[in-house]
Design a protein that fits this description.
By secondary structure, the chain is mostly helical. It has eleven helices and no strands.
């Protein structure tokens, strides 16, 4: 009797265990079923990097804005990586603009006055140091590095030669599109030049270099999306203008025919 009771209790425990394992397996199956649609939906949704790569960057840019500006200290200044240095550079440019434009200082006068002040202070300090038992000022030996000067001159000469080549192609009458862009650019520049003098124009360009890139880097996705739509509309209107007007304008001889 006792043995039957033990066997009955053991079989009952086995049934309870099977019931528990069955419930756990069914719960895990349900969880897997719930997770599968979620994983498929997450895989189908595009990642932020995919969305960013789908946007056509301004002027066909592939590199980050910091790399476009060289990726060095000048890029850090323009993009305000160090706010103290960027603010100091912009403040110095503003001070120079105030001296030349508002106070009507001349460049030669400013250079001479600065040299007089620096030389006078150094001379007085050097002579007064012997009376107060202090060391005279250590004047550094400044020298322009020849390698950097040659690199700057070489880069500048390449840009000038490229500009001359573009102007030559425009004057030859082979590329009507480039001709229109150059004429429009020069016309806008002439209007801006009539509003202010050269110093103010350089200062405005300097301020734009310190404001536009950092704002563009902050809102580049919105700007690139808007620029893509604007360029699509401009190309559409240019195609209509080309078909109705530019295609009827006689053009100069091509380079191949000219060489033949």
């Amino acid at each position: 009797m006792v043995v039957e009771h033990v066997e009955h209790s053991e079989s009952l425990m086995e049934k309870i265990k099977e019931k528990i394992h069955g419930d756990n397996s069914s719960d895990s199956d349900n969880d897997n079923k719930k997770e599968k649609p979620h994983s498929s939906s997450s895989s189908s949704s595009p990642s932020p990097s995919t969305v960013k790569s789908a946007i056509n960057r301004l002027f066909g840019r592939q590199k980050p804005v910091h790399k476009v500006f060289g990726g060095g200290k000048p890029a850090d200044v323009f993009l305000w990586r160090n706010k103290k240095i960027s603010a100091g550079v912009l403040g110095g440019a503003t001070a120079i603009w105030v001296l030349f434009e508002l106070l009507e200082y001349h460049l030669l006068t400013l250079v001479c006055h600065c040299l007089i002040l620096v030389l006078a202070l150094s001379f007085l300090w050097s002579n007064a140091a012997t009376f107060v038992n202090k060391s005279p000022p250590q004047i550094p030996n400044l020298c322009l590095p020849e390698k950097q000067v040659v690199e700057v001159a070489s880069a500048l000469s390449k840009e000038i030669n490229c500009a001359i080549s573009v102007l030559r192609d425009v004057a030859s009458g082979r590329d009507v599109k480039t001709f229109l862009f150059v004429i429009a650019g020069l016309w806008v520049l002439s209007i801006v030049g009539s509003w202010c003098n050269f110093v103010s124009l350089v200062y405005i360009a300097f301020v734009l270099l310190h404001t536009v890139p950092v704002l563009y880097e902050k809102y580049e996705d919105q700007v690139d999306t808007f620029a893509e739509k604007a360029m699509h509309e401009i190309k559409k209107q240019y195609a209509v203008f080309d078909a109705k007007v530019l295609s009827k304008i006689p053009r100069g001889p091509s380079r191949d025919k000219k060489h033949l």
